[in-house]
Amino acid sequence: MTTRGLMLVLLLVAPPALAAELPHEVAEFVARRDRCDHFRGEDAENPARIREIQRGLRANCEGTDAALARLKQRFAGHAAARAVLDRYDDAVE
């Protein structure tokens, strides 16, 4: 994802002042987990689209539960990061 794309995602997730305060690791997680949540919310009957959704889930969701726990621990004292991270479910895999 480009820097511009990442900033657009952050602006949708957090107010501009908050987005500017997020550590890069958290911003990357937000972008990935939002893609994961997008694919989790999709339903399809077309076999080709089902395969595409499954690929999207594997690519974007696998490992995010552990990553979220790790980031919450690492940034426990960082109010802006925790505010964003606390919005995500702890278990989606």
From TrEMBL:
Domain of life, source organism: Bacteria
Signal peptide span: 1-19
Keywords: Signal
Protein name stated in the entry: Uncharacterized protein
Species the sequence originates in: Roseomonas haemaphysalidis
